[in-house]
C-alpha cells in the first residue's frame, strides 16, 4: 500500500493488515507520531500539522468560553428552579418550626451568589468586601421574608433592589465620617454623573455654573453636594495642604486667645464683689471699670479723697481674705 492511498483524517482508518504488508507499510508513516496523535484530538477537518497559536487554538478558546457561559447559564437556571421549589415548600410550612427554618436557610444559601454580584458594584468604596456581603445578606433575608411567589415575579428581580438598597443604606449611615441628609446624598450622585458627562463633552473639568445649569439647581446646592461627597474620607487636621505648601489646618486655625486667661479671674472677681457693701462695689467699679481717679470718685460720691482711699484699702483686704486661691 502506498502513502497516497492512506485514508484522509476525516474518515475512519482501515484496519491494519496482517502479515508482511503491515511491516511494509510501517516505514511509510511519518516518524513524528506525537503531532499525529495531537491532531487526532482536533476537530474534524482541521489539518494535522496545525502549529501552536494558530486559529485552531483560538477556536478552542472560544469554545471553552462558550461552554463556560453555557455552564453559568445552566447553574443560574438550576438556582432559579431550586428557589421556586423552596418557596413553594416554605409557603406551606408554619413559621418558626424547624422545617421552616431549614427551608429558609436553604433559600439564603442558594441565593448568596446574588448578594456577591450586588456587592461587587461597591468594590471602589474602600470597604472590606466581607462587610459589604454581610450587609447585603441582611437585605437578602428581608427579601426572602417579604417575597410572595404567587405574584408571578422572579425572586432575583424582586430581591436585587432590596439587597442594593441595604448596602447603600449601610454606606450612607455607617461609612461616612459625617452624616449628610439623604436628599443631599442623592443629589451628590447626580452631580457626579453630570460632572463626568460635561468633562467628556468639553474636554475639561466643568464649572459650578455649568453643573448647576445641567441639573437645573443653584450653584449653592452644587457646592453643598461637593462638600457632602467629601464626608466619605476624613482629612487629618495636621495634614499639609496639597499644592499650596501651607501648614496643616490645625496650625493655621489654632491660636491663643489673650483674653482666655482672664475668664477665670473675671468670674472670681464677680463672685467676690457681691460680698462687698453696695457703696464699696460702686467705688471699685468707678475706679477699675470706668478708670476714674480717686479725686474724681470723691467728687462723684461727695466724700473726701482720703475716705475713698480708706474704702478701697478695706475692700482689697476683704477681697483677699475671701479669695480662697490666694489663701
CATH architecture annotation name of the domain at 72-175: Up-down Bundle
Distance between the termini: 130 Å
User: What's the CATH class label of the domain at 72-175?
Assistant: Mainly Alpha
User: What is the CATH topology of the domain at 72-175?
Assistant: Four Helix Bundle (Hemerythrin (Met), subunit A)
General shape: elongated
Q: Compute the average pLDDT.
A: 75
Strand content: under 5%
Contiguous low-pLDDT stretches (5 residues minimum) are 1-56
Largest sheet: number of strands, sense, barrel closure: none
Question: How would you describe what is shown here?
Answer:
- With 327 residues, this protein is mostly helical.
- Among the domains are: 72-175, Up-down Bundle (Four Helix Bundle (Hemerythrin (Met), subunit A)), CATH 1.20.120; 178-232, Orthogonal Bundle (Arc Repressor Mutant, subunit A); 277-327, Orthogonal Bundle (Arc Repressor Mutant, subunit A).
- 63% of the residues lie in helices and 0% in strands.
- It contains 15 helices and no strands.
- It has helices at residues 20-25, 33-40, 55-92, 98-110, 112-119, 129-146, 155-175, 182-202, 208-215, 219-229, 249-253, 261-273, 278-288, 294-301, 305-322.
- The longest helix has 38 residues, at 55-92.
- It is elongated, with a radius of gyration of 44 Å.
Give the arrangement of secondary structure elements.
Elements: H1 20-25, H2 33-40, H3 55-92, H4 98-110, H5 112-119, H6 129-146, H7 155-175, H8 182-202, H9 208-215, H10 219-229, H11 249-253, H12 261-273, H13 278-288, H14 294-301, H15 305-322
Helix pairs in contact: 3-4, 5-6, 5-7, 6-7, 8-9, 8-10, 9-10, 13-15, 14-15
Amino acid at each position: 500500500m502506498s502513502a497516497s492511498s492512506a485514508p484522509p483524517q476525516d474518515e475512519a482508518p482501515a484496519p491494519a493488515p496482517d502479515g508482511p504488508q503491515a511491516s511494509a507499510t510501517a516505514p511509510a508513516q511519518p516518524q513524528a507520531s506525537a503531532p499525529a496523535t495531537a491532531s487526532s484530538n482536533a476537530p474534524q477537518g482541521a489539518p494535522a500539522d496545525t502549529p501552536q497559536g494558530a486559529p485552531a487554538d483560538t477556536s478552542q478558546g472560544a469554545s471553552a468560553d462558550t461552554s463556560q457561559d453555557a455552564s453559568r447559564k445552566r447553574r443560574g437556571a438550576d438556582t432559579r428552579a431550586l428557589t421556586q421549589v423552596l418557596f413553594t415548600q416554605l409557603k406551606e410550612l408554619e413559621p418558626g418550626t424547624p422545617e421552616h427554618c431549614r427551608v429558609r436557610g436553604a433559600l439564603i444559601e442558594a441565593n448568596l451568589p446574588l448578594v456577591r454580584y450586588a456587592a461587587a458594584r461597591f468594590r471602589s468604596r474602600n470597604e472590606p468586601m466581607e462587610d459589604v456581603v454581610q450587609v447585603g445578606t441582611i437585605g437578602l433575608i428581608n427579601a426572602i421574608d417579604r417575597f410572595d411567589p404567587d405574584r408571578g415575579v422572579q425572586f432575583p428581580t424582586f430581591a436585587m433592589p432590596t439587597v442594593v438598597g441595604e448596602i447603600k443604606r449601610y454606606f450612607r449611615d455607617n461609612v461616612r465620617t459625617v452624616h449628610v441628609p439623604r436628599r443631599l446624598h442623592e443629589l451628590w450622585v447626580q452631580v457626579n454623573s453630570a460632572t463626568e458627562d460635561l468633562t467628556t463633552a468639553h474636554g475639561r473639568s466643568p464649572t459650578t455654573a455649568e453643573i448647576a445649569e445641567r441639573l437645573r439647581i443653584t450653584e449653592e446646592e452644587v457646592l453643598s453636594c461637593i462638600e457632602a461627597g467629601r464626608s466619605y474620607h476624613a482629612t487629618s487636621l495636621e495634614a499639609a495642604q496639597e499644592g499650596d505648601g501651607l501648614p496643616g489646618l490645625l496650625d493655621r486655625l489654632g491660636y491663643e486667645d489673650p483674653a482666655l486667661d482672664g475668664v477665670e479671674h473675671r468670674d472670681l472677681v464677680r463672685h467676690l464683689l457681691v460680698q462687698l457693701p453696695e457703696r464699696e462695689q460702686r467705688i471699685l467699679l468707678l475706679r477699675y471699670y470706668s478708670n476714674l481717679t480717686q479725686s474724681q470718685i470723691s467728687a462723684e460720691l461727695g466724700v473726701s479723697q482720703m475716705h475713698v482711699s480708706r474704702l478701697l484699702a478695706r475692700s482689697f483686704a476683704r477681697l483677699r481674705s475671701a479669695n480662697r486661691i490666694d489663701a
